[in-house]
Write a structure and sequence with these properties.
Elements lengths: L3 H4 L18 H35 L1 E13 L2 E13 L2 E2 L4 E3 L5 E11 L2 E11 L6 E11 L14 E3 L2 E4 L4 H6 L4 E12 L5 E17 L3 E17 L4 E14 L10
Length: about 260
């Protein structure tokens, strides 16, 4: 039997299982014990950081579609009319509330979705456009937020796409593919219609940008997306309206993809 004097010989912490004294552990044993304590503390801290990061991920996750049209003009015109590509899904347009910039050079702005030989398009009419010292533009935009993650890897067939639209896939550089293995890039082409009521020749341009994406915050903004950008310009003589070719690019699978995307709150 161990005497009371023996039990107290190591001080308050002198007895450990197996009758091993801390004082008898030596420098190596004490180092192992200290490292074990540090490891436990580090795991607790990492667990807390993971919990905080997960909270911000789920709390900030959102999905939306964004559509912008930029009509730029060099010169003055009246009774101008534009037909521009729209996001379309299953033959129906996918357009939310429309907003446009207020400008003294663009008077009497009206818009509507109309059916054309190319499918649904956005019809923008402007009563009067005043000439300025340089190119000036009318900016039209729309945004739709949704409650489900958007399929940005393979949106064709499942998501709204700019229409009309023709795509030819590009070959990605190895460095880009290594960084974004899901990404695919395409040359894109579309069309827009332009006319005005004057006799003079006026230069017009049309640019369309559309993006569907999922975004979240984890130490900074992250996300994934598909995106289309097409544009073109043309001189238009009076009421001789013209269909203008729009060229640009289309990207699918851009950005990062979480293993378990949540349903947006």
């Amino acid at each position: 039997m161990t005497s009371s004097g023996d039990r107290s010989s190591g001080g308050l912490f002198g007895f450990v299982p197996g009758n091993l004294q801390v004082d008898d552990m030596g420098a190596a044993g004490k180092a192992v014990l200290a490292l074990s304590v540090l490891l436990v503390v580090a795991l607790v801290l990492l667990g807390g950081l993971f919990a905080v990061g997960t909270f911000f991920f789920y709390d900030s996750y959102s999905s939306s579609y964004e559509y912008d049209v930029d009509i730029y003009v060099e010169g003055d015109a009246e009774d101008a009319e534009f037909l521009v590509p729209l996001p379309v899904q299953n033959g129906e347009h996918h357009l939310g509330d429309v907003h446009y910039t207020e400008s003294e050079r663009f008077a009497g702005i009206d818009y509507a979705v109309v059916d054309t030989e190319h499918g649904p398009m956005l019809n923008i009419e402007v009563d009067e456009i005043e000439e300025g010292p340089h190119w000036h533009s009318l900016w039209v935009s729309s945004r739709i937020e949704v409650d489900e993650s958007i399929d940005t890897r393979d949106p064709r067939g499942d998501e709204p796409m700019v229409s009309p639209l023709e795509l030819v896939e590009r070959e990605l550089e190895e460095t880009i593919h290594a960084r974004w293995p899901d990404r695919r890039d395409f040359d894109a082409s579309s069309t827009a219609y332009i006319e005005h009521g004057g006799d003079q020749d006026v230069d017009f341009g049309v640019s369309v940008w559309y993006r569907g994406g999922n975004d979240w915050w984890t130490g900074g903004w992250n996300g994934n997306y598909y995106e289309t950008v097409v544009s073109g310009d043309h001189g238009v003589q009076g009421s001789d309206g013209v269909w203008v070719e729009l060229d640009g690019w289309h990207t699918e699978g851009g950005g990062r993809y979480p293993a378990f995307p949540p349903t947006p709150s």
